[in-house]
Amino acid sequence: ASSTAHKQQDINHLLDKIYEDTKYPDLQEIAKNFNPLGDTSMYNDQGAAAEVLMKELNDHRLLEQHHWYSLFNARQREEALMLFAVLNQCKVWYCFRNNAAYFREQMNEGEFVYALYVGVIHSKLGDGIVLPPLYEITPHMFTNSEVIDKAYSAKMTQKAGTFNVSFTGTKKNKEQRVAYFGEDIGMNIHHVTWHMDFPFWWQDSYGNHLDRKGELFFWVHHQLTARFDFERLSNWLDPVDELHWDRIIREGFAPLTSYKYGGEFPVRPDNIHFEDVDGVAHVHDMEITENRIYEAIDHGYITATDGHTIDIRQPKGIELLGDIIESSMYSPNAQYYGSLHNTAHVMLGRQGDPHGKFNLPPGVMEHFETATRDPSFFRLHKYMDNIFKKHTDSFPPYTHDDLEFAGMAVDGVAIDGELITFFDEFQYSLINAVDSGESIEDVEINARVHRLNHKEFTYKITVSNSIGSDHLATFRIFLCPIEDNNGITLTLDKERWLCIELDKFFQKVPSGTHTIHRSSKDSSVTVPDMPSFHSLKEQADNAVNGGSDLDLSAYERSCGIPERMLLPKSKPEGMEFNLFVAVTDGDKDTEGHNGDHDHGGTHAQCGVHGEAYPDNRPLGYPLERRIPDERVFDGVPNIKHVVVKIVHHP
Ligand SMILES: [Cu+2]
């Protein structure tokens, strides 16, 4: 069998029933007898990271098992990253697997799972491994208490069952109409994985630089915000209003969800004023941080820790702005610009118990898996999105010459097939949510969820190339609203900020006139449905036992909008939108990058793993800057928009 098959099998076994001791004899043997410091030649750092973690372990300082875990808890994150550092220093798989198996039995389960996921993602040794969907490894973070309770009783009574998951809230709560978006398990995987691919705690000393991390932070959350507003349009809801520190938080949230260990996620009632949170921040500090960031935008520069200034009114500016707003370890001055996004997540998570009187566990906002359930997530991100908009609005609009791709024209844009949205039914296993017992056999226990989906379709883009030779072109496809929720036609300048990116791809265009066909399935914005944990286990076991190869490369990256959510839900009578296509000079856009220009097909929002982002243009180009005069866009032949209709089949 290939080494990939063995690695996949090891990872499957390590993640099986993480709240219990492993049942696999080889892992049991390692957990008992392996010494992380026995042979330090297996590490790049001669065991320095392993020494640190072993000292914490021997001093009994590590968080106990059967306790909640949150990445936003500084000490818990520190512990998880100690294990990540050990795995990341391993030169060979033996070292990676044995350390994972050893610390699996010693560390908190949440810390272990997090470290293992980021370890597989960022270590070269993880190439080829498909991480199982987190909703089957830690199901408590993806479903609600009712379903978990049913899973327990199915297990106790030995009756197999499939349980419907309903969206949080009732019809009395208008926000419930769009809960299918914030609670979509695939969207939650996208969000949590993006933050694992581009962690705020990342330092380049771990091995490489994460290209355009700060800008991608802006773009991914801008797109989440725009997509959420799109869903609201078809559900008769106003766009999300931004959060303000000095105004009430209108929507409360009752998660009705429980930790595996740690009780229920706290509730936040409607219409509360922001409270200072003990040990986290004062509301006033947040306002000061916000002011400093707005000042940086107005000045056009930020001030680094040593006092020197860094120009941000330049193409790299948005990246630095993302770094300071999140903030990540790339922030040039976290002391001064604070950590607006991360602290706001914790502030919102704690509003139900701001002074720690009730010793509640962290709120849903304090986990990337659960944050989008809470309507305040989108308020927070609208607020930050508007800060980024203030920055991009400080740039001069693109001119005709900036936008034109001389010799290339888009003659026509059409859709092959109908644009139809619908809800599908999907099942995933809850078996890892319940405990095993010597005497109680596992029975099949599944959750059944409704998920937004759409019919496959193909873009037909007719392009004329009169340059005289083949030329690489970048196709940038967006879907934009035509009207707001009151039926008022939007100006292009209003519309552009609300557009969602459907695809971005590079393709050679031969001389003459040609129609380019591009399937919705190939979008670089999306990822396909993930294989289930059961199927990953079966495939790895078959490959290992049969001595065959295992190629799961199509599923290797799980950062990306779920393919089935590429289109926003429409109405049964149909809704019209603008399909916007810009074709730009691919040679210039990809200058300095090599490769097949496909990059595994998930680069638009998630970059290329371990490499530079393949497109030199700003993310969102050419719609990210002000458009005071629409005629500039109408006057360039390489940009075209057509009206398309999307219909929802209930
Ligand atoms: Cu996020």
The CATH superfamily of the largest domain is identified as Di-copper center containing domain from catechol oxidase
**Mean pLDDT, as a whole number?**
95
- List low-pLDDT spans: none
Number of domains: 3
Bound molecules: copper (II) ion
> What is the number of strand segments?
14
Description:
There is one protein chain. With 650 residues, this protein is α+β, with helices and mostly antiparallel strands. It has three domains: 4-129, Hemocyanin, N-terminal domain; 174-394, di-copper center containing domain from catechol oxidase; 400-419 and 455-525 and 560-648, Immunoglobulin-like (Sandwich). It is 34% helix and 16% strand. The chain has helices spanning 3-15, 25-33, 48-58, 74-88, 93-104, 109-122, 134-137, 145-157, 179-182, 185-197, 213-234, 283-299, 317-326, 334-337, 340-349, 375-392, 400-403, 492-496, 533-546, 586-589, 603-606, 631-634, and strands spanning 161-164, 301-303, 309-311, 408-416, 419-429, 445-454, 458-465, 471-481, 500-509, 512-519, 526-527, 561-562, 575-585, 639-648. α19 links the parallel β11 (526-527) and β12. α3 packs across α4. It is globular and about 70 Å long. The model has no long low-confidence stretch (mean pLDDT 95). It binds copper (II) ion. Copper (II) ion (CU) binds at residues 191, 195, 221, 368. Copper (II) ion (CU) is lined by residues 191, 195, 221, 368.
